[in-house]
Design brief:
The complex is a heterodimer. Chain A has three domains: 168 residues, Aldehyde oxidase/xanthine dehydrogenase, molybdopterin binding domain (Aldehyde Oxidoreductase, domain 4), CATH 3.30.365.10; 176 residues, Alpha-Beta Complex (Aldehyde Oxidoreductase, domain 3); 237 residues, Aldehyde oxidase/xanthine dehydrogenase, molybdopterin binding domain (Aldehyde Oxidoreductase, domain 4, 2-Layer Sandwich), CATH 3.30.365. Helices cover 29% and strands 24% of the residues of chain A. Chain A is built from 19 helices and 29 strands. The chains are: A alpha+beta, B alpha+beta.
Chain lengths: 784, 487
């Protein structure tokens, strides 16, 4: 079929429609290619990373003789073999590619062995003999606090005077919640393949959210210029933040081997290695002192967020900061201090994970609200509503300013919560559940409605930029490239929709290609939910440049006003005339018009002064709310999510199907974090849950059987984002806080809601049973 | 002299000589056939990204099952038929109803797990399953997805499994099945390569003789454990004996007083019959692994393995099952509980193997109560598992057999608790008294599946749960599975 045949009827696949993921057919037929599926170049070497078996130790000696002489081994490489810098860290220069003399966590990379098969490489790596001298290891938040082991000085966000406000308040509460970390468990583990080229060139195929950083790190490690390294990312088999910085090591190891041997080299982490090596979501311990009025209005809040960073900085500082940015969630805090303690420990260097600290900060705030409600004997929803930031239309209100002095100008949480409470029948069900619980000895139910406000933008302001490249070929087909990466979220589909919309053509006229650093340079990670906001704008900018050039040509040629030229339905309408899009392109080519353009976007309005803890780090906020109903077994602690109702704001949706997919997937992933997913390290700092046999992400039956998810129909971004849409990657994960609060509610029933259960996360059967027993004992103790 | 390994792969006959018998099917597909649609997500049979469909000729019919290619050794495919995700779309690229449904419902995001969902659902489609929602959860329990939250995949399953096979599919299936019938030979085989040997006897006497001669050989059935020795521990296994082709080991025999299950019977194949005789046991078996694991794993291997967790042994011990062991031509029968001596140590002589298990029938099938506690309901290893066979006559406990997994180094009875109960009235006071006896029976270890305190507390609470269930309907006490009324 030529593109001329496309000129009948309306263009399909434009913005706002429910378009399937661009790779859906390839996914279901097994034809989508991931790193380990790429046809292997001749002579490819398989690389296995040798790992430390101590949490903190000096390396006295490393005998790799047997590794070298093992069958199939071509080479073994250590820190001494690195031509450039021994560092794969994103920012601070503190993540060695291979540990040199000092080991700082169990699972740290020591060396790489390259062999002719993966099996040979794996078997050889086991033959290393490493002598260590043990050093004292700091493993937990408590130990780090005790020994004041911090990455950086405690950091604060302050507004007003929290301490006196709390003291003067009619009611005071103090409390604490421990929040566990989370393994990303992307189904495709870390993987990279490096192929040496001419001169000093090297091409790295990487499963990375951040191709530019992979390019830069490979260049640093090999002592090359950035222009000698090209990173290509077609797609990832899941990432969730775990491939923002953590993909650097695999890529650099592959590149090093390729450089030193002159042969293509591939690193594919086995699942256990992946979980042992890579960082995870930070675990937190949040302490609070809150003062509030008789009706539950917060007057002062003092929060301490201690979080476990692991052995290096990685992205911990912006993650810790984001936990603080969301330490308010949707609530106005007149007097507030949020204090952040970045604990340095001898464990995996914790990293980005969907929400980037936001979920932990938000869970802390929701716990506080819940605790207040229970203390006053009120419905937590009532307390939530009372403390919301002022509605966007309430422009005169003082209740618009955050702990970091940003004005919340777009708050619509009241509208969403009212709508959701109604459509989920929250009040009636809450009453019914309490009645049900009074009739049931073994099973108890709980319900909770929690809101989400999530700030959109990288809080490192300079990262909020993106580029794109659009080519229109002389047959009318369009090739699109942008700096974002596809990890399953459907970013490529959305960007293609945006470009198809600009040209008024069918979606399949636009082909989207692998992200590659030689097409669009200096890109930011596809992270912070920003993928379509940033790259969509950049792609539109590129497309519009070409459209303008074509319009100018047509306007001259047909003597019409450029304003009267319209691209739609695979045609260009020029005054009275309709010309096929591909014909117009042909004419433009013949008229020597450039049909290729780069596009660029930098988010406006944002600024942030970290020293002063003040500014506007976010362009806008995304909002949503969820009601979860759960049941627990008070004899075993087992628990289930029964029903979920979600109303979420994506502004004007670019693609409702993809957005709903992000919402459901985010909720379930968040629910896993707060229920079944538990990371356990032993006393020596060895991670004991390093495979799906021991680390349990939600399975099919864990999904609430009765889920009702809706997009907030009135949603529209008040800022000028791409088609007034809102980012959707991270915010829905935090909707799952409602499940955790519902579990708390169910446990509270054991003591007739008189005692607050203070559940820690994740709410495993063990923790729930312990809470049930604690409440029973306290009730007995109180003589009730 | 090595035999030739023959199977049908996506409609083509594959003949293999000179292959490592411990090479996995996944490695073969990806590295030798360039069939990279099947993915490695965990290499331990827990994520399902490598799921393929295996067809076997049984009583003249081809039965299709989803299995994990990552822990399936090549010889296990001998005389079978394999369909990978690449073999599911039609000859002209027509999408199978399962594939179309996943697209229609937006059931793929990153796409890495998708081939496994396609194959799991297609296996169910080929088997003509018409599941309800819970049934779909069960079909997909062995497939992990980290992106979608599963809803779209469940909807896709509902849509696809209600649809008929396309004509091209029927034609192709017939052709493949004919190829399969042509290759199947009922004869013993041995596959040898590079110092490794895989024996595949087809008669009980052949197996007994081989194992007596080579008692150091590894007996393998579904390889859901042995597979990990290779993929995770990189162990070299010189000699394996495959027990799954011995017809008499694969029989289930219902007698007047008991049920006899051959050691080679797969979990999935026993579920129907035990659902009638011991419904709680059936639910317990349903929660072993995912469907892929139950399609290969056997009850006999589970018993023989001697894991402290046990899966089936706590229930079988509570039921008073007898274990039949064979060495050469000699057999003996012992109470199952006596088989487990201490951690890693069983009452099994050199060259002796598990032949069958004999389970007494119950007058009241509901008398057996089984509870598996784990962090996740489906496809998890239990923190602990408690099974209760308590007989009450005229409101008094006349007999009690209570067994636990996960509470000691072996699956073990709670004898002090039993003794406290026997002869006493079936009252809350008796239960409370018996709950205090748990400390005499068990001092469990703590690990990543549960602390010592949790195990002891939950174990004793399970006795209370049994008591509660004697006076209220199951829907008052059960969150999931049999009897639960919670949607």
């Amino acid at each position: 079929m030529t593109l001329h045949q496309k000129s009948n009827g309306a263009a399909k696949g434009i913005v706002g429609q429910l378009i399937p993921h661009d790779s859906a057919t390839k996914h279901v037929t097994g034809k989508a290619i991931y790193i380990d599926d790429i046809a292997e170049p001749l002579g490819l070497l398989h690389v296995q990373i040798g790992l430390s078996t101590k949490a903190h130790a000096r390396i006295l000696s490393m005998d790799l003789t047997q590794v070298r002489s093992a069958a199939g081994v071509i080479g073994v490489f250590t820190a001494q073999d690195i031509p450039g810098e021994n560092d794969v860290s994103p920012i601070m220069g503190d993540d060695p590619l291979f540990a040199d003399q000092l080991v700082e966590y169990w699972g740290q990379s020591l060396f790489a062995v390259a062999a002719t098969s993966r099996t040979a490489a794996r078997a050889a790596a086991q033959l290393a003999i490493v002598e260590y001298e043990d050093l004292p290891a700091i493993l937990t938040i408590e130990q780090a606090l005790e020994q004041r082991s911090f990455l950086y000085e405690p950091y604060e966000m302050v507004r007003g005077e929290a301490a006196p406000a709390i003291k003067k308040a009619p009611h005071n509460l103090a409390g604490e919640i421990a929040i566990g970390g989370q393994e990303h468990f992307y189904l495709e583990g870390q993987a990279a393949m490096a192929v040496p080229g001419e001169d000093r060139d090297i091409t790295v195929y990487s499963s990375s959210q951040h191709p530019s950083e992979v390019q830069h790190k490979v260049a640093h490690v090999l002592g090359l210029l950035n222009h000698e390294v090209t990173t290509k990312v077609r797609r990832m088999g899941g990432a969730f933040g775990g491939k923002e910085s953590q993909s650097n090591l695999a890529a650099c190891a592959a590149a090093l081997v390729a450089k030193l041997t002159g042969r293509a080299a591939k690193v594919v982490y086995d699942r256990d290695d992946d979980m042992m090596i890579t960082g995870k979501r930070h675990d937190f311990r949040i302490k609070y002192d809150v003062g509030f009025t008789d009706n539950g209005e917060i007057v002062g809040l003092d929060v301490e967020q201690a979080f476990r960073c692991g052995m290096s900085w990685d992205l911990s500082q912006p993650i810790g900061d984001r936990a603080m940015f969301h330490g308010d969630n949707c609530y106005f805090l007149p007097h507030v201090r949020i204090r952040s303690l970045a604990c340095k420990t001898n464990t995996q260097s914790n990293t980005a994970f969907r929400g980037f600290g936001g979920p932990q900060g938000m869970l802390g705030m929701e716990r506080i609200i819940d605790h207040i409600a229970q203390t006053l004997g009120k419905d937590p929803l009532q307390i939530r509503r009372l403390n919301f930031y002022a509605h966007k239309d309430d422009t005169g209100s003082e209740r618009r300013v955050t702990p970091f002095h940003m004005q919340v100008e777009d708050c619509i949480i009241q509208d969403i919560v009212d709508d959701l409470a109604k459509r989920s029948d929250y009040q009636k069900r809450r009453t019914e559940i309490r009645a049900w619980n009074s009739q049931n000895r073994t099973l108890r139910k709980g319900i909770a409605l929690t809101p989400v406000k999530f700030g959109i933008s990288f809080t490192k302001t300079f990262l909020n930029q993106a580029g794109a490249l659009v080519h229109v070929y002389s047959d009318g087909s369009i090739l699109l490239n942008h700096g974002g990466t596809e990890m399953g979220q459907g970013l490529n589909t959305k960007i293609a929709q945006i470009v198809a919309h600009e040209f008024g053509v069918d979606l399949d006229v636009v082909k989207i290609t692998a992200t590659t650093t030689d097409k669009v340079p200096n890109t930011s990670a596809t992270a912070a939910s920003s993928g379509s906001d940033l790259n969509g704008m950049a792609a539109r900018d590129a497309a519009r440049k070409i459209v303008v050039r074509i319009k100018t040509m047509l306007a001259q040629k047909h003597d019409v006003d450029a304003k009267d030229i319209v691209f739609r339905e695979n045609k260009v309408f020029v005054g009275e005339q309709q010309i096929d899009f591909s014909k117009v392109v042909e004419q433009a080519y013949m008229a020597r018009i450039s049909l290729s353009a780069t596009g660029f976007y930098a988010t406006p309005k944002i600024h942030w002064n970290r020293e002063k803890a003040s500014g506007r780090p976010f362009f806008y906020c995304a909002y949503g709310a969820a009601v979860s109903e759960v049941a627990i077994d008070v004899l075993t602690g087992e628990n289930r999510i029964l029903r979920v109702d979600i109303l979420h704001d994506v502004g004007r949706s670019l693609n409702p199907a993809l957005d709903l997919g992000q919402i459901e997937g985010g909720y379930v992933q968040g629910a896993g974090w707060l229920t079944t997913e538990e990371l356990i390290w032993n006393d020596e700092g060895r991670l004991m849950t390093h495979a799906p046999s021991t680390y349990k992400i939600p399975a099919c039956s864990d999904r609430g059987p009765d889920m009702h998810i809706a997009l907030y129909e009135a949603g529209e971004n008040s800022e000028e984002t791409i088609h007034r849409s809102k980012a959707v990657g991270e915010p829905p994960l935090m909707l799952a806080i409602s499940a955790f609060m519902a579990l708390n509610d169910a446990v509270a029933s054991v003591a007739d809601y008189q005692i607050y259960p203070k559940l820690d996360a994740p709410a495993t059967p063990e923790r729930i049973l312990a809470a049930v027993e604690r409440l029973k004992a306290m009730r007995k103790g109180a003589g009730k | 002299m090595s035999d030739k390994l023959t199977f049908i792969l996506n409609g083509e006959q594959i003949d293999l000589m000179d292959f490592s018998p411990t090479q996995t099917l996944l490695s073969f597909l990806r590295n030798q056939c360039a069939l990279t649609g099947s993915k490695e997500g965990c290499a331990e049979g827990d994520c399902g990204a490598c799921t393929v469909i295996v067809g076997e000729l049984e009583n003249g019919l081809v039965q299709y099952r989803a299995i994990n290619a990552c822990i399936t050794f090549l010889p296990m495919l001998h005389n079978k038929l394999v369909i990978t995700v690449e073999g599911i779309a039609g000859p002209q690229g027509e999408l199978h109803p399962v594939q179309q449904a996943i697209i229609d419902h937006h059931g793929s995001q990153c796409g890495f797990c998708t081939p496994g969902f396609v194959t799991s659902l297609t296996a169910a489609h080929l088997s003509g399953e018409q599941p309800d929602r819970a049934g779909i959860n069960d079909i997909l329990a062995g497939n992990l997805c980290r992106c979608t939250g599963y809803g779209p995949l469940i909807s896709a399953g509902e849509q696809a499994l209600a649809q008929a096979s396309p004509d091209w599919q029927k034609v192709r299936q017939k052709e493949s099945e004919k190829l399969l019938r042509d290759i199947v030979r009922d004869q013993a085989c041995v596959f040898q390569c590079g110092g490794q040997c895989w024996d595949m006897p087809v008669s009980l006497s052949g197996l007994a003789q081989l194992y007596k001669q080579y008692p150091e050989a590894i007996l393998v059935a579904g390889a859901s454990d042995v597979g990990l020795w290779v993929t995770k521990q990189l162990r070299q296994l010189p000699h394996l004996i495959d027990v799954t082709r011995v017809a008499s080991l694969c029989e289930i025999e219902e007698q007047d007083e008991s049920l006899r299950i051959g050691a080679g019977v797969r979990y999935q194949d026993v579920m129907d019959i035990i659902a009638a005789l011991y419904p709680d046991f059936s639910e317990l078996v349903r929660r072993i692994g995912g469907r892929q694991v139950r399609n290969t794993g056997t009850i006999g291997a589970n018993i023989a393995n001697g894991s402290p967790i046990g899966d089936t042994p706590p229930a079988l011990i509570a039921l008073g099952a007898q274990l039949i062991l064979r060495c050469g031509s000699k057999t003996r029968s012992i109470p199952l509980e006596d088989y487990y001596i201490s951690y890693g140590h069983q009452d099994r002589a050199k060259g002796e193997f598990v032949e069958a298990i004999e389970i007494p029938k119950l007058d009241n099938p509901d008398q057996l109560k089984c509870y598996k506690l784990s962090k996740r309901f489906d496809q998890d290893i239990s923190s602990l598992c408690g099974c209760f066979n308590i007989e009450i006559v005229q409101d008094r406990v006349s007999a009690a057999r209570i067994a636990y997994g996960g509470m000691a180094g072996i699956p073990q009875r709670a004898q002090a608790v039993e003794q406290t109960l026997i002869g006493k009235p079936w009252t809350r006071a008796t239960i409370k008294e018996a709950m205090l006896a748990y400390g005499n029976d068990f001092s469990p270890l703590g690990d990543m599946r549960g602390s010592s305190d949790y195990r002891l507390l939950a174990a004793s609470n399970l006795l209370l749960k049994v008591f509660e269930e004697s006076s209220v309907p199951l829907f008052d006490t059960r969150l999931v599975g049999r009897g639960s009324a919670l949607i």
